[in-house]
Amino acid sequence: MSTQALSHPDDLKYVKTHEYIRVEGDIATIGITAFAADQLGDVTFVELPKVGEKFKVEQKFGVIESVKSVSDLYMPVSGEVVEINEKLNSEPEVVNLDCYTAGWMIKVKLDSQNEVAGLMSAADYKQFIVD
């Protein structure tokens, strides 16, 4: 799939490690972008943190494995994990099929809304992956 054909919703924020964040109030939903899922190929396993764990920006929070490689997952913001996507334990391929809705990974209670402001917009992210 070409980079141009991949979707990157405008209502999300993005980071250079290819995670996205959707903010609703003080809760952030985090997953990997369509570009990352495409680059990984068929996802075979996702290792996620436990509810209650706390992370700082850019700290590793999990691992994603595919037929091609193993990659670390990094926090785009600081916060406490309040929910994980349990479905990914038995159906990791959902990340490839629908990374932005059904394939989300964790939900985090934000430590600071200010961290979100510094993240890339969809337009910035699209430019980043083309460059």
Task: Describe this protein's structure.
This protein is of the alpha+beta class. The protein has one domain: Beta Barrel (OB fold (Dihydrolipoamide Acetyltransferase, E2P)), CATH 2.40.50. It has 5 helices and 9 strands, in the order βββαβββββααβαα. It has helices spanning about 35-40, 85-90, 95, 115, 120-130, and strands spanning about 15, 20-25, 25-30, 45, 55, 60-65, 70-75, 80-85, 105-110. The strands form 2 sheets. A 6-stranded antiparallel sheet has the order 1-2-3-9-8-5. Strands 4-6-7 form a 3-stranded antiparallel sheet. The longest helix is centred in the last third of the chain and has 9 residues, at about 120-130. The protein starts with 12 loop residues before the first strand and ends with a helix. About 35% of the residues are buried.
Characteristic terms for this protein:
131 residues; alpha+beta; OB fold (Dihydrolipoamide Acetyltransferase, E2P); six-stranded antiparallel sheet; three-stranded antiparallel sheet; 5 helices; 21% helix; 34% strand
* Main pleated-sheet profile: 6 strands, antiparallel
Multimeric state: single chain
What is the mean predicted local confidence, pLDDT?
94
N-to-C CA distance: 17 Å
CATH superfamily grouping: RNA polymerase II/Efflux pump adaptor protein, barrel-sandwich hybrid domain
Helix content range: 10-25%
